[in-house]
Amino acid sequence: MGDTLEFNEIYQEVKGSWNDGRLRFSKQNVVYKSSKTGKVDSIPAGELNMAQWRRVCLGHGIKLGTSTGHIYKYDGFRDTDFEKISEFFKANYKLDLTEKDMCVKGWNWGTAKFSGPLLSFDVNDSTAFEIPLSNVSQCATGKNEVTLEFHQNDDTEVSLMEVRFYVPPSQADERQDPVEAFAQNVLSKADVIQATGDAVCIFKELQCLTPRGRYDIRIYPTFLHLHGKTFDYKIPYTTVLRLFLLPHKDQRQMFFVISLDPPIKQGQTRYHFLILLFSKEEDINLTLNMSEEDVERRFEGKLSKNMSGSLYEMVSRVMKALVNRKITVPGNFQGHSGAQCITCSYKASSGLLYPLERGFIYVHKPPVHLRFEEISCVNFARGTTTTRSFDFEIETKQGNQYTFSSIEREEYGKLFDFVNAKKLNIKNRGFKEGMKGKIDEYSDSDDDQHDAYLERMKAEGKIREEGNDSDDSDGGSDESFNPGEEDDDIAEEYDSNASASDSSDEGDESEDESAKKKKVKKAKVVKEKKERKPRKEKKQKDSGGPKRPMSAYMLWLNSSRERIKSENPGISITEISKKAGEMWRQLGKDEKEEWETKAGEAKRQYDKAKKEYKESGGGSTSSSKKESKKSGGKKDEKKRKSAGGDKDRERGGGNDSFKSKEFIETSEESSSDSDHKSKSKRKKESEEEEEEAVSTPASSEEESD
Questions:
Q1: Is residue 70 within 8 Å of 116, Cβ to Cβ?
Q2: Model confidence, pTM
Q3: CA-wise closest residue to 204 among 221, 185, 217, 213
Q4: Residues ≥6 apart with Cβ < 8 Å to 147
Q5: I need a labelling partner for 187 at 20 to 30 A (CA). Which of 100, 385, 535, 575 fits?
Q6: H helix or E strand, kind and range, residue 427
């Protein structure tokens, strides 16, 4: 037989719910680790004094008792495990594993026995049920009964609220009431918080993030009292799982996180973490409300009566001594900015993710603590909104998924190296199917320096930056339009130099140059229009021409329609055509030949009539109409083009037609010269028109005048 025995999927009952974990028997101790909370129970082998094998609801279970009065129960063993465990106990613990039968009669009358932290209800010397007194929250007495109320567990669907015991009056000892004696035995081991005595120390007006507000924290020997303006919380030290001391990213503040199981309650809200925020610059002088001898005897040098230092150091030091738990701080991880945390978002609220030596913790809304041993795999996913960030997804073995989004791209390399060093399974969701067999090998390879996802993210970032640079360069080309330079070449309508440019002989050329520049600028904005294909003109029917002849089938159908209706009364029009098609296909060649000859005769008559119609000039009118329509369409297009050109001229010359007051006062002579030149141009144009069009002499004379 080996030195150890290990069992998986062993269950421990915690306030009405079954928590699974791993149990290991070794020569030195018995260790049980919960898979849910990670809490470790270690029982030294020398303290074991009782071991029982019992048949329970989850197969078989072991009940262990220690010399210190503690009871531990573990269920989920198989029937075949009895011999193996019994031999191990005899060989290493010098202890017999005895079999104990439970009472399953269902009787409600028996004997209540108090054995250490358990209240057992026995019927005929067989245990019917057991109540851990640490689960009792309150004990109330009546005339002949005792009521036990229990702490509630949020993980259970059904919770036991209370149990009432009827205690009959005892005539043997009249001096002591049996009801009070029963209640005293319960309260001596129950987890009932009673603020008796003075507090060891008090921290006033501490900033608390969850639950939010400022609270006075009073430190008692067995519990922590949070006193606020609206709520009070009493937290037993037995419910504290872990302590964290985390530096803020700004290096000026500190988080002190207390992990609780079971959580504290405020209405329907449960707080699994108590988060305090301290400033590093805040100092305090602390004096414990105890004598120096008591401090030395109880805390064994961990605390002293008078202490001074930073406020967060004093709180963490006192909590560590009273709770007797180690304080977890960030390990060797350093982000891109040199901080020991990563800025990210979880459930639409921003916070800080701290990679620890044995897990991750996110603060603060809502706080999340994930241990490496409960993580199934992690995934680096591209951000949904931008390539400048990525998402970090964590999937637990229970199937829960936590997504920390909006992490800066620069943090990827540091975080990936950390995850790879911790040998966590890394998966890429895009190649999930192809990488199933390689996940373990990939996560274990610390020497693998090539990261395809990192290279892909770098390439995407370069493309994104190049796109931004090209946008900036486009903006620079627009900025090349300098109003100051253009004032030197082209006078604006409000410029005092406008008269010189308009009155000079080169005014028309400057106008043409300005129009060209404006057209070039517009060409950047206006998109090129695709040329539309001309529509095919429909053939127009000639109403005066002869009608086309009918086919053989149609001639037969017209003659047979009435016969089909009479043979099939109530038949519809569509059904008539279907029926006629079937009948036509069934006709023989001889019958069809009759109708085909009739159709051929009708075709010859149609050809003859069409020829006579064309010779008499019947089809020429339709062709002339088509030509007129085409010519009319061309004229309309010319009109549209000329109208569009006039509008463009009006738009282009809108600035030249406007004349400011300054222009009118300074350029009267130049305007008269320009008017004289325009009249002479008009005369030349009119003379050329007289030579070309002699038929319109009156209009040309009017123009010359």
A1: yes
A2: 0.49
A3: 217
A4: 139, 140, 141, 162, 163, 164
A5: 100
A6: strand 426-427
DSSP string, 354-367: EE-SSEEEEESSS-
pLDDT digits (tens, 9 = 90+) for 430-440: 433 333 333 33
Any bridge partners for residue 394, and if so which?
378, 402
Give the residue from 453, 405, 403 showing the smallest Cα distance to 428: 453
- Residue 405's closest CA among 419, 394, 390? 390
Specify the 3-state DSSP secondary structure of 326. coil
* Segment 333-370, tens digit of pLDDT: 888 888 899 999 998 889 999 999 999 999 978 999 99
Beta-carbon contacts of residue 143 (< 8 Å; ≥ 6 apart): 179
Amino acid at 411: E
Question: CB 552: neighbour CB atoms within 10 A?
Answer: 18
Integer Cα distance of 188 and 380 in angstroms: 53
Cα–Cα dist 670/502, whole Å:
8
CA–CA gap between residue 543 and residue 537 (Å, rounded): 18
Question: What does the pLDDT look like over 144-179, one tens digit per residue?
Answer: 888 888 877 766 777 788 899 998 887 655 667 888
In this prediction, residue 360 carries a pLDDT of 94
The residue type found at 636 is: D
- Rounded to an integer, what distance in angstroms lies between the CA atom of residue 48 and that of residue 66? 5
In the numeric block, which tokens belong to residue 170?
């005892």
Structure tokens at 591: 């019958």
Mean pLDDT, residues 203-215: 90
Choose among 655, 334, 351: nearest CA to 517. 655
Q: Six-digit token pair at 1?
A: 């037989």
Looking at residue 197, its pLDDT comes to 63
